[in-house]
Predict the structure.
Amino acid sequence: MADLLLAQITDTHAVDPGAEPDSIVDNNARLTATVASLLAENPAPALIIHTGDATDDSRPGEFDELERRLEPIRPRLRMLPGNHDERTELRNRFPDQAWADAEHGSWTDEIAGVRILGLDSTEPGRHGGQLDDERLTWLDTELRRNDLPTVLCVHHPPFRSGLAWMDDGRIRPEGALDEIVAAAPHLERIWCGHLHRPITTTVGGVTTQTCPTTSQPVALDLRPGQTISMVAEPAAYNLHLRTDAGWVTHTRFVGLEVEPIVPDWAR
Ligand SMILES: [Fe+2]
Ligand SMILES: [Fe+2]
């Protein structure tokens, strides 16, 4: 099997240029810089998966801004709703992907013999997300459909991160995915967003990662009871490379304006 390279971006939180900023960084400028970085990737990722919170508040002007800035990579994009996105509006704005024949914003795709499942974990009005029986049944059915290597993308991470204020409203019901993913022998990775930080763990025995945000990162602060705290670290995204030996994930930082240098000792 030839190597397969996929990109994951998340939590772009596009804002309406006319609205009061709700971020410690310029979300839209960072999104444009991220798109430029993705276009410069060599080799080019075959798909670019957006794991949600595409907009900050689902306003029409935010979706306009999002679409305009994502335009150069649009043919390779797959969008998944986050808690900041109105799922029907997201589906209407990105009608070309294989959305589930259901009210939720889940979808399936396949590339180079690898299946990708996007599971909508959003619940209108709830920050932390929720999975109902309909979506859990959809996921279980899709995971059993064939024996291709599979990746599951879901906005809300199904684990406790130790970031106290983000964990407060985490996905319900607790442990909803554990049994389903543990019983899916071909599921190789779970890729999430929402936490605005890169984090790795296992869920039901499956390696599970959150992708860093392209907008404002959450501060790395593991004190119990820690409240909302952001930090102006660089925008970043993940590159997932699948080789014959399995998946490896790299993180690309954006906007540092650093060019690779060959040190003297290597010349
Ligand atoms: Fe977010
Ligand atoms: Fe989120």
